Queue: 2 jobs
Job 1
Amino acid sequence: MRQALRRLGGQAVGTALALLTAYPANRLSGQDSQFSVRGLGVPGRWESVRARTTGGAFGPFDPRSSVADVSLADALQLTATAVEATTYRRAEIGGSRDDLRSSRFPFMSLAGPLSRRFVVGGGFATYLDRTYSIVTRDSQMLRGAYAPYTDRVGSDGAVADLRVAAAARLGSWIAIGAGAHVLSGSSRQTAQRIYDDTTFLGTTQTAVVRYDGFGISGSVALDPVRSVRIVGYARSDNRLRARLGDTETDRVDLPTTLGAALRWSPSPSARVAGTVAWRSWSDAGGFNTTSWSAGAEVGAGPTPFRLGVRGGQLPFGPGTAAPTEFGVTLGTGKSFSGNRALVDLGLERLVRKGGGLTETAWTVLVGLTIRP
Amino acid sequence: MRRVALAAALTVLTAATACTEDVTAPGHCPDFCPSGSITGVDTVLQTVVQRDSAFRGFVRPHEASALLAADLRDTIDSRAIFLTLPIGDSLVVESGTGARGQIVGVDSLKLTVTITRRDTSAHNLTLVYYRLPLDLDSTKTFADLAGAWTTADSLRSLNVDDLLAQPTHSALGDSVYVDTLSNRVTVIAKLDSAMAPYVVADSGKAAFGVKVVADSRASIALGSVEAGLGPLLTWFAEADSVAKDTVPRSSTVGVRFDSFVFDLLSPSVDTTLDSTLAVGGMPVARSIMRFALPRLIRDSVQISRATLVLVTARPPEGVPADSFTLSAHGVLADFSAKSPLSPDPSRVATTRVHIGIARADTVRIEMADILRSWQIDTLAPTTLALRQVPEGTEFPEIRFEPSTNLALAPALHVTYVRRFPFGKP
């Protein structure tokens, strides 16, 4: 009976992974930002709501997140997770202020054990967000007079990270994980000019730019003592290729990611963690970034309380210094149906600064986890 | 209570996270704008028109939708001519039985014509009616009918302005009606039996000519059969009756043939074609223009505005009311003079040519839609027919400098937006 269930679970995981891999990546943007206008975009978060509401500190330990593949080793039953995020942003620059908002589904994962020591998983997450819409006013000398016009340049889309990963617990104190990542996505780009003088017809150009790339990742988790876990992870992505139809329009190298995390569980109902990660975004023409986070989760019951802080840099921005980012998060969760369904809720406050632009955002996070 | 609280919390959460999107913000360039920008270009393509030529004979007078009568002194003298249908030798005298009686005499006639265009600045507009021979056809010229146009041969004249000045718009059996919607003027002239006698051998056919005069240059258009506004002739006849000697009966007939004949009095309205691009006139001329568009324009850019610039080589002659619409009309296939015109309205661009335009003045036609349609349909011939709209309803003819005159050749003033560099970070 157990073997039959195990076989059934494996088939379900395989089917789900195939479906996830084929999922169109058009609406996966993690969080829009004015900092995504220049460069490749804003990196997404590979975290479930649980991990994200601890500032991301629990990401490398969370089997529902895809930060470190080794965390899958703790997924002892088939688990599916999805995240919905609604962001209310305010961008301030040069005395002007704009309020923006967007809703996204930035993350989904599926994991399940093939055996007692071996777990596979997969899903998608936002790798780079490419959503923005910029409006500018100017004029041009046409036929002897200045013709004022409004330009609107926009991009709607993202590069998604489609992951297939596996983790194995080699012993009570060590586990390893590895994954393969297909970077795929598209952005629908629009360039529109409308002249105030209607004798000049407005023009609208659109194009769908497709992106592709590939990456591999590996990680290891060590439990030197029962209450402490240390995770080290690395990831290397080869390049991002942009194609317009059959024509390659751009190709940039993608960064290598190195990260480490420490979790301490002083009691069954309290956990704290810290994470630091470095990414070589200079390979892609940006700034190398170092990001950190610290967080805690209190309560082992059905309604835990989580909080965290995070900081670091963004890879793309004007000037000679990388834009900075600082965020505070808090959240909770609620389990239903004998722990088979989990709803995680979170709230994130984020401040990004760089090149004279200050961007603040409130993000409402809703996560749904199913354990059939 | 807990359920109510949970429902309220879920409602608030749903409202806060409902799908919503507003990502548009003013750009702060160059720091927070995309690396690529929209580039507008304004340029004049001087040699874009090639292999142009003019052709005449598209509409002949008897095919026109108007009968042109004009007295443009020293320029054009034109007169409307028409032949009415016969009424036969008998008329119905008893409607109940349909019994017919022989026509034994005519008391009077009423001749109705409709003025579809007139110059209101020409005062004392007068129609002069002539009786013409019954052998009218499309081969008749002004000279062929020269003998019929003498003053002694005129039946009578009717001053339209005088009638319009009357409170009832009528006098002595003549009357005029003005259609307040179309501003057409219907003129009804009374003729007596001496002016238009009933000839049994002709079955009541009659042919008339109409000349127009005024205090100044006069030019009018009368409705034709082709426009559904042809002249009408009403006979008021005496028919033989069984019960009585005669009874009065009337019968209205339309026209079998209508046209106009004209005399070109000035060499400035010479209809001989040369290398210039002639449009309009009579017989109607069109000019065919072939465009050799650069690949950039044809394939890559988005057109904001395109203006065809034509330089006048010979201005049109006429009165202000003779101003006409000039159309640049795309063709379905380039068969030179016989090119069929495209029925697609997006391949038609028009402008108004006003009488008074001088030589070397420019005429501009906005043709962005045509260029855009050529971009979409790359198989469409990039050829335009320059024509008057509607053709054959105006005498004036305009001629433009051809492409062989390099300094004054037709040019295309184009404002366009270059292809945006999509796919660049």
Job 2
Amino acid sequence: MTPRTSAAAVAAALLLSACGGDAGNAGSGSLGGSVVIDGSSTVFPVAEAVAEEFQIANPNVRITVGFSGSGGGFERFCGGETDISNASRPINDRERAECAANGIQFSEITVAWDGLSVVVNPANDFVECLTVQELRRIWQPTSTVRTWRDVRPSWPAEAIRLYGPGTDSGTFDYFTETINGESGASRPDFQASEDDNILVQGVAGDRYALGYFGYAYYSENADRLKLVAVDGGSGCVLPADETIEDGTYTPLARPLFIYVKHAALARPEVRAYVEFLLTEAPAIVPSTGYHALSEAEYQQGLAEIAEAAGGAG
Amino acid sequence: MASHEGAPSVQAVLSGKRGRRIREAAIRGALFACAAASTLVTVGVVLVLLGETVAFFREVSIGEFLTSTRWEPMFQEQHFGVLPLLVGSVLVAGGAGVIALPLGLMTAIFLSEYSGPRLRKVLKPVLEVLAGIPTVVYGYFALTFVTPLLRTVFPQTDVFNAASASIVVGIMIIPTVSSLSEDALRAVPNALREGAYGLGATKLEVATRVVVPGALSGIIASFILAISRAVGETMAVTIAAGNLPNLTLNPLESIQTMTAFIVQASLGDTPQGTLAFRTLFAVAMTLFLITLAMNILSQWILARFREEYQ
């Protein structure tokens, strides 16, 4: 073959193989297109698990899930960049105004409950329970707590190393609002990261560390972390399905949300993804470590979506 | 196509002697435009930085920025002292220099004075590979390999610490030091070496007493360039050094460098036009001025102390 002939043959082969790609795929889904999701790193495990299952049934839909933090997610969402925004705190007034200014209509759907977890290193043998007052003393903006002994005199005089989500994180907003009384009010000298895996690594590696993040990141790394019970006024309670369900794990039990853009619901793949999430949630949510809502609550979510999709435009 | 009698067609214009001059002028213009484009981009970047930095300093005093020791721009009670970030960057760059400068220089001396051509042919490409490894890989390497190693030697090391970032950044800039120094050493004429040998000097004496002093300006320039690269290093320090603004000279603690802060702030949801947003530009401007100063310094040293050989 001359070089020109073989080049033509290669080009033809490539073209033909590209043609054959889409036809006759295994999955039952004939859906295509893409779904763009961003937001809370706490909700990320749920969104990712759902996306994986969804993509098995619908291999032609491209789903991307980011974890810029609840705040970062809202900024992108209200700028029209994403279809769904994950959030571990409700949307605030400024973000609502931004969305309204850009003509983004959305529905807020609760998808799970999280027992926001306070963790220490497994080698830490003296901390079993922390009261809300102690947490506030440690984390408040004017905190003078430097060592464990400053928290309780019976504890060792070792420096506390603090790890927590960064200022863009919904978990940060929720924790500071609940413990310190105002969203965003926190002492500044802690290792901050929107990526909870970095926090896990920090606490797991540091004997006198203290950190907080969503329960899913604890349950994924339960062998490297130690959960601390929280005393919200009526005794020390560890976060667990039962204690979140009956409300005894307070005040750190919180709802997790997704915000769905109405305009995006006009696209069948987005609507299918959200409906898939709400139908499969009772099975998928517990596998990530969070607490699933009741069937009725998910049905309500589905009804809201149907209404929003019907009225879109 | 109708053409008036006597008016030349484009074809005719572009050929012939006059046409050649026009062609050459056009090519010159196009090439000049390319060169101008890169200059304009640089000027544009500086102008954007300058604009936002000036807006920043309308609200925050330069005094507080340069002298305060608290860097808390994203929290409720804001403090804008850049010193913790600056010291963090200097700590990492300094540590990297301690590793890279001696190793790089000695590698360069070996390559230029001691090694045979075959060994040089193998070593140089390997060094280039070291330079080609993506910095994010270096960062991950620091976190997963260097930090545990450090913790066995110094158990009080934090999980995120300046030392492991320094070490990998040092490894990363060794090729910069060694290749630039080697060029400087090779540029020293052989006549000087032969003269020293003729006087009975050993190889070590020739290398250290004759060649290195002769190439000193190039060597120092390479040092400065490598350090300025270490100051600007982003991914490795973001992954390995931590996110905790900390005014300390202890490399075993977590710190935050200027570059890591810029990453943290730009990945987030800081609304445009706010003071917190402008801190990004103020820090970037500081970084830019530092690397600019180092580049100018290295050019000056090269020019001032260059040995002219006949």
